[in-house]
Amino acid sequence: MREKLVENVQIALLALAVVWAVFAADWLLSLNLFQSAGIKPRRLVGLWGIPCAPFLHAGWWHILSNSLPLVVLLFVSLTFSRRLTVRALVAIIVVGGGLVWIFGRTGVHAGASGVIFGLIGFLMGAGVFRRSWRALIVAVVVL
Fold it and tell me: What global pTM score does this model have?
């Protein structure tokens, strides 16, 4: 049991490290990934942004404000169920990003906020439907 918890922490931190690595590369190399690879609503070129958006951030404050909630929610979700968490993440990214592409305001949209709110919803649903009070309480506290 303890080994699984340690693995879940490692997985959550690895995911966060990837987000930070993309941000660092973008910042250090002036790649302007936020603008070039973010979701651009109702533009074909903006579809590419759907899978990329959770890894892109507009600036330091943006990535800092997403980091702690992301790692906590990933850890709790993975502890609840790794298989369901992976499925939820795919659905959150595809459906959430797709809805942003369809309904979003003009401009560029990116960041892990959609994943964060999606994981909150996933944990709330898990808490209600599977009667996991821990998952529900953590989701409400992070919200």
Answer: 0.91
